[in-house]
Amino acid sequence: MDQQTLAAVLQFLKNNKLKDAEAALRREAKLPDGSGDSGGSSRVATSGEVSSVLSAYESEGDLARYCEYYSSLSSFIESSLDAHKHELGCLLYPVFIHMYLQLVYNRHEKEAQKFFNRFSVEQEDWHQEDLRTLSTVKTREQMEVNDLMDTFRSSKFVLRMSRDSYQSLRRYLKQNEHRELLSILQDHLFIDVFDGVPRNREQVQATSGAMMGEARRDANKVKVLYGLPKEPDINVPLDDDDEGGDGEDKPKKKKQKKDLLLNKNKKADPNAPPPSRIPLPELKDADKLEKVLSWKEGLKRVPLGRENLPSICFYTLANAYQNVSAVGISEDSSLLAAGFEDSNVRVWSLSPQRLRTMRGASELDQLDKEADDIVERMMDEKTAADSWLLHGHTGPVYSTSFSPDREQLLTSSEDGTVRLWSLHTYSNLVVYKGHNYPVWDVQFSPTGYYFVSAGHDRVARLWGTDQFQPIRMFVGHYSDVTCVQYHPNSNYVATGSSDRTVRLWDVLNGNCVRVMTGHKAAVHTLAWSPDGRYLASAGVDKNVLLWDIAYGRLLAEMKGHTDPVYSLCFSREGSLLASGGIDNTVKVWDVQKVFEEIAGSDDLTSLDRASLVEVGSLLLGSFPTKATPVLKLHFSHRNLLLGCGRYQHN
Amino acid sequence: MHRAGSIGQGPLRSLFERAMPEKMTAPKDAQVMAAVLKDMGVTDYEPRVINQMLEFTYRYVTDIFENARVYSTFAKKKEMDTSDVKLAIRHNSDHSFATPPPRDFLMEIARQKNSTPLPLIKPYGGPRLPPDRYCLLSNNYRLRSLHKKPKLTVAVPRLGLSSVMGQPSPVGTSTSRVSSPTTAKITIPVSVTSRVGQHSSHMKTSQATLLQPTSLLGRPISTLGSSTSLGDSSGTKRKREDDDYDLLE
Predict the structure, then answer these.
(1) Confidence of residue A637 (pLDDT cuts 50, 70, 90)
(2) Where is the composition biased (Polar residues) (chain B) (predicted)?
(3) Domain A343-481+492-500 has what CATH class?
């Protein structure tokens, strides 16, 4: 036993005239000590204060009082002012957890069990999942092995409280002198005090739910450059329109649309990142042509809004006995890739054009390399097919992503690898090994070359296609990262995780610039609005949440789904949000209303309150499919909503 | 396995009924496993899951006990006791159930990696791929010659080869291989590099394929035959027949 610690303890007991306890301690100290004191000191090594040392060596008598402490705390909270009640109510969950852990740690399993059974039912619903994991930890040995316990022990649970509530809490603690409570609060909780009006029940509930509490205020302080960079001047000669930018001689309506779409505004968006902030691949001629074509498609776009709901074209994968685990659609809606649980990937063409592969080497040799249509000639018409099957992974494929130029496909799988496939030869080009655990999501950047992958190892990694190791690692989530979504300006990456938070990362330096809590269960899908300011997220808790990235606050909560939501997509001009899930429906939400409210009242004073925009129900339409869970939604350039799912015929 | 009811009436029936009760309840293990699943909140599972879980449990426990037995004999103990078992469990968990690395370790690595600047992207780089050794681009096969020449008996080159070799070539069969010891390599590659296409007609002896040690030339030449035996292998290996390989020609 650590002599120093023992001496400190004895001194403390002497000071407080706790003679019986002191005598008991002296008696016991004479015996050879076999219990894990080193474990105890490492557990409280972070604080290093005598009081914390003591809390780990609590004698028998005080433990029965844990129940007392907890009940007295909860009754205090009940009896406090309504204004403070809800904020203080957040305290109960972390205090409960740490009290339980202390009981287990000190090997008082029976008391721990009693404590758990009595108070676990009082916790909120969304904590029950974590509590169940907690209930399997009954002995100290199990505690050391369990991941979740490690997280709780090493990281601090964050609570946000107004100054008034905090003062009343302090008064209570001073009155009752519960040492253990104090020590728990000091070691394991971080109370972020803000000056302002205490939050009401809705507001508190809106941001609770994450594994480690809420987000600290300084986590959301950094300025995020969410704007889109100015479109480059492209002068590609086409048959009709001239892309010079000035269209005075065009009919008025077309000119308006054109200006909006081509976005040739002279002033740069102040919120946009400078183009040289991160190195981006240069625009090749083919890319410029692509851009122009997509702008032309955009001219024929159907404007959507609350009076004009989208048409939905749904692709059903029938007879897919090997379960479909992922679907990806290319940006121009011409290709669809599905990943299966038997590790295959199949690529289909959604356009009338069939999928062609490259000719053999001897034939390519004979081609005239200077010909204009060399790309066309390279492709072999004879072996064109409607779909191609790609083999390579050794585990279920969890995500697919097409490159913006449709030349490459990325897939990620449970075998821990991300594979790059060529869509010219339909073969596997590269295997990126970095996660050693299932990779849940992968996505190409809107410019190509970069891609992010999210895995079970709680890390999201940024790669370049020519790097065999990741370029950036986004570490911060407490549990696996389940989904990633690149920002339209390629400077930020949003990740959603099963620790119920959504984080935004800066590609330049890998920092986490936004932490957004509010989901009550794992987040499985994210979608950016086309202008880059708003982020929608949804997951197992069936709600779709809309966030304002500029301040990192929650704007709206869209309830309506009855089962987990697995896909989200904004319409091309950003006025509608479509969501689909396991409840076999596609729901369309009117987010334009929310944006109008925001634009009207742009008050920055309400930053600390997650004031949800009061708009009533935003649901515009609900479209059921025939027993087909919706795996992927995608708005084409003309605002046709494409959906994909696998027919469940049981 | 017949249910007791299908046995029919008679003295046999009572015998069977005693041996197998009407209602077949799950064995105790399966009941325990079902209870564990219920405790962990898993309510919706196929019946086979219980069997799989039981198999896993049995295998895991057996592994642990085997290792514990090894540790206890190493420590020269009479019997296995809990400390052996604990050691075996710890050892097993380190190796097989690897959990993702702890957060602070990841933070440290991330800090290092994120401090390096983003790599510059070379313009006009074509399909940007990692260095070849990290790609799956190279062939993992070598082709046999496509043309199956008729078996010529060109005595001269063969004699030349065998005289160079300084040992009797395994003549008896017309399908024997010519091993190419180091002295022979001087002559063969020269003509290969100059006239790749016509080489096969020149140097083809009664064997349809010719040895081409790939290491000499640096890379395999796909139009020539390939073989796997280098060096003097006449006595030990079976002479490979031409139609050993099933090729679609």
Answers:
(1) very high
(2) 193-215
(3) mainly beta
